[in-house]
User: Fold Alkaline phosphatase from Cudoniella acicularis.
Amino acid sequence: MASFEDDLVSLSSPTTNPWSSPLTNFVYRSRCLQPNPCLLRKRRDSSTHSEEQAADEDTALLGGQRKDEQPRNRLRFWGELGLFTWAVLATAAVIVLAVLSQHQASHENECSTSPAIPSVPSKPTNSTKPTKPPGKRNLIFMVSDGMGPASLAMTHSLQYDDVLVLDQHFIGSSRTRSTSSLITDSAAGATAFSCGLKSYNGAISILPDHTPCGTVLEAAKKAGYLTGLVVTTSITDATPACFASHANIRSEEDLIAQQEVGEHPLGRVVDLILGGGRCHFLPNTTSGSCRGDDRDIVNLAQEKYGWNYIDDREGFDSLKLGSEAKLPLLGLFAGYNFPYEIDRRNMNDIYPSLDEMARTALTALEAATKDSDKGFFLMIEGSRVDHAGHSNDPAAQVHEVLSYDRTFASVVEFLNKSETEGVLVSTSDHETGGLAVARQIHPSYPQYLWYPEVLSNVSSSAEHSARRLRAHVASGGERLYDFISIELVQKGLGIMDASEIELKSILDAPQLSTYSFADMISRRAQIGWSTHGHSAVDVNIYGSAGSEPLRGNHENTDVGKFLREYLAVDVNAITDELLNKSKSFSIADKGQTPWTGNIPTEEDLHLAEEMHRSQSLSINSW
Assistant:
């Protein structure tokens, strides 16, 4: 039988051992010949007599040559010591060379002038002045408000090939906390994107000391870029507001509307607006207004700041998907929110889709910058993923995610065809609903199942069903039980097994019917929700070529840092300009009220959150 030493000789032979260099052989032998601690613990202590006896036995076995071998043993000892010393020195030399090589490569990257991938540190600072990019470029930033990783997982199961366009551009994730809470709201989340700085929940590009921070959109406009905002909620809602206005609290939507059209310390900073929120632009003396005063912001936009205004599908279609658009363009197609995509597809003659608006904006902005050495900055928000999360409506959310994915695909296609360099970055401000693609319905051990076909059978959102219910009640409510059971539950939700208890709960509390309808769907699909609010879950980051610095996990402020560094715009200079102009700038008809609104109390901030939640569920928002 071959001995262990024979095996080692065989392994170290150049003909059999691929690791035959002295260094690797030394490392291998060092590891293999380490004493076994278990064997050492079992070994008895040797006496002097036993050691001498063992030595005598060795001498006998070697044919009496023991004394003659001593000089050779000394030579072997010094030889092995020399080999060990050489191996240590060689290892040290390899480490030193590797460190020097890495340092040199890092230095070369820092000195590189390549514009393709701007360097973005993991922790943003505001002290460095931007370097001017060498060429014209476009930047499209997309926000999937309220969409977390589970929203994608849920949507995958409804796709034939189980893959979205978004999946092919996944590059990282973002941490979302604000300065006031581990769970952010949309205002603080969007401020991190627009200013690259953290702030409190409710702040619209305002810092915790209630001073304004310059935004990437404002800086882009100052640098000569054209700018645009496209959303499916009110253009005065938190996310779009944070790019083109400043307010101490997000509920100052009348004030935000004024700033967005040009009543702003920097003047007009947006060139294209497409979305909802018309009620905040109309005087409170007219139908469809939700303003607190009689100011006509549409008229202000047209007469003072030169906006071209459209407010219906016919006006949108006249733009010919952007080829006939004239900037500045203000398009307000809904009183507040657009319908959910699951409902809008049946009202296509009234409301344009997010994809249509995005493609219109891209075409219009590209045409308008054709002869310019600057490109454009466009923010696109899939706004109502968040609202579906607030109402815990999985069917509505799936269709919002699919709509967002189609829009993302259109932007990717635009960039691939455009002759101008451009980058697309997409992320969420937070997750909404605490969604889990699983739900334990019974106290016994749960089944590892969920049922996407339940969502496939739904033809209208819980919000739309609640709207129809209230309209029916308002018109007299004849045969109300049958209307709920047949028209709303069976035909609208695709549910054929509704219980008497479920139907009676809707009948008894129609004001809560949005939640009731959504829960009926979620239970049958075995979809779980932990909240009607936001969660602290990290959210995904997606990007096209050129967005590589955002790979990995980042603070949400790193996304804001990337946006301004890609465009090489000076956001800090905008902050300084806002602070200087704040001393003399005032709002019409507001007296001594600061242009950013009054400083809110904690109660004001709480009420603003409640207002946002109610708006996300409003049946009168269309």
Remarks:
- The radius of gyration is 34 Å.
